[in-house]
Amino acid sequence: MRLRLFVATLVLLLVALPLAVPWLKTPFLLALSNGLAVLGVMVLIRAGQVSFGNAMFACLAGYGATYAARLWHLDALLLIVMGTAIAALAGALVGLFMVRYRGIFFGMLNLAFSMMLFAVLGKFGAFTGGTDGLRFDRPTFGFVHLERDGFESALLAVALLLAIVAGWCVQRYYRSVSGQALAAIKTNETRLEYLGISAKRVFWGGYVLAATLCGLGGTLFALTQGLVTPEMGYWVRSGELVFVAILGGSSHAVGAFLGAFLFEFMKLYAASLLTGMWQLVLGLILIVMVFVAPSGIYGLLSRHLVRKAPPDFPSRRRRVAKEAA
After folding, report:
1. Tag placement on the chain: N or C end, fewer CB within 10 Å?
2. Residues in CB range of 17: below 8 A, 6 or more apart
3. Which residue has the higher pLDDT, 124 or 304?
4. Spatial separation of the C-alpha atoms in residues 219 and 82, rounded to whole Å
């Protein structure tokens, strides 16, 4: 109950603050898009795997939406669907190779794929715009032409709705059979195979889900900026997603968005106050979090948000009496 009240309060703040302070719309959109991508990274962390290349799916989705906007002038809602579908398809194909590897090999192979994509986008400038990227005109929203302020407001509403739905779906996935089997890959993959469950198939499903969430975040990121660049798929970007997952806490979907908002505003203010040193600030914060709160921000808050069930004293007394007899 406390957790639901906390989430409801966060949603109300996300609605009220941009109305009171309009310039917050863009940082809020960027934070929500990052939070959706971090959700994908958290799905893989649940299986005990850390990917340093998942930003490539956000990059692919962003470029796919950009090409569709430039060639066919599709509506923003259709671009979101198309970009997410492209990322899901790419995740399904790449996942066929990735399900065979674990640990450092999994992380480095993801990194290799992302660096290949980064190199292709940078070298074939005639089609991709090179390092300058590609711009596209503001699309219609619901087949209605909106000014920038109205477009950002509508996009923020859709992004908030998608974040709520995605977070709820991820939590349901965690509690499902597939989600429990994915967590078992981290603890004892061999026992999972003995039960007749294919660990590769379970991991493939989790990998596709992670790619889809990253693609959804990447598409929203592209629509917010009206620009895509190869930097969206660079390994530093993938490292930022892992950073946010650690910062917010990977045990609950709420942690992805808590970490994303804190990261976005820390980067914003650190870059303005300490020009050229904001990476140092973020690095120090990460070190402190690892030592002080390894379970992240949500881990700290969960002590007060999640009420533990009281111990069953009568059953304990019966058990002790039975053992004594």
Report:
1. C
2. 24, 28
3. 124
4. 9
Length of the chain: 325
Q: Is residue 242 part of a domain?
A: yes
Number of domains in the chain: 1
DSSP 135: E
Q: What is the distance between the alpha carbons of residues 126 and 177, in angstroms, rounded to a whole number? A: 47
Residue 324 domain flag: no
Q: In this predicted structure, which of 23-37, 67-81, 171-185, 300-314 has the lowest mean pLDDT?
A: 300-314
- Residue range(s) defining the domain that contains residue 96: 2-308
Residue 33 lies in a domain: yes
The first and second tokens of residue 205, run together, are 């499903």
Whether the pTM exceeds 0.85: the reply is: yes
- Round the average pLDDT of the chain to a whole number and report it: 87
CA distance 78 to 11: 25
Rg value, the chain, Cα: 21
What do you get for the CA distance between the two ends of the chain, in Å? Answer: 41
pLDDT in tens, 234-272: 988 998 999 899 888 888 889 899 989 988 888 888 777
Distance of alpha carbon 140 from alpha carbon 129, whole angstroms: 23
Query: Apex CA 256: angle with CA 253 and CA 258, to 5°?
Result: 110
Q: Are 219 and 62 in contact (CB under 8 A)?
A: yes
Instruction: Assess contact for 141 and 155: CB atoms under 8 A.
Output: yes
Instruction: Specify the 3-state DSSP secondary structure of 280.
Output: helix
Of 229, 243, 233, 242, nearest to 279 by C-alpha is 243
